[in-house]
Design a protein that fits this description.
GO terms for molecular function: structural constituent of ribosome. InterPro entries: Ribosomal_eL21 (IPR001147), Ribosomal_eL21_arc (IPR022856), Ribosomal_eL21_CS (IPR018259), Ribosomal_eL21_sf (IPR036948), Translation_prot_SH3-like_sf (IPR008991). This is Large ribosomal subunit protein eL21. Keywords: Ribonucleoprotein, Ribosomal protein. Pfam families: Ribosomal_L21e (PF01157). This protein is mainly beta and about 100 residues long. The chain has a domain of about 60 residues: Ribosomal protein L21 (SH3 type barrels, Roll), CATH 2.30.30. About 0% of the residues lie in helices and about 30% in strands. The protein has no helices and five strands. A five-stranded antiparallel β-sheet has the order 4-3-2-1-5, with no helix packed on it. Strand 2 and strand 3 form a beta hairpin. The radius of gyration is 14 Å and the shape is globular. About 15% of the residues are buried.
């Protein structure tokens, strides 16, 4: 039997991009800077796998608590439990 339990399982439609949004990711998404305490949305960029958070957190909003290398650390409530998610800036979007 084949192995069916990868980190991107059940994401066929969740990580799908619109037809006109395919291609190279803008450089501005790579060099985003966030302030500590700022609210950000987790929107996974499917064309870049490095630094992608778990699919469970796609579409959630969290607060920035720090930076770890090139990635940002966020706190997110998953049910009643507060969790720390580490994600690169390509997968984050500042809340307006």
């Amino acid at each position: 039997m084949a192995h069916h339990n990868g980190p991107r399982k059940k994401t066929r439609y969740k990580f799908k991009k619109d037809l006109r949004k395919r291609g190279i990711v803008p450089v501005t998404s790579l060099i985003q800077h966030f302030e500590i305490g700022q609210s950000v949305h987790i929107v996974c960029e499917p064309s870049i796998q490095k630094g992608m958070p778990h699919r469970r957190f796609h579409g959630k909003t969290g607060k920035v608590i720090g930076q770890r290398g090139r990635a940002w650390m966020l706190t997110i409530f998953d049910g009643n439990m507060e969790k720390i998610v580490i994600a690169r800036p390509q997968h984050l979007k500042a809340q307006k």
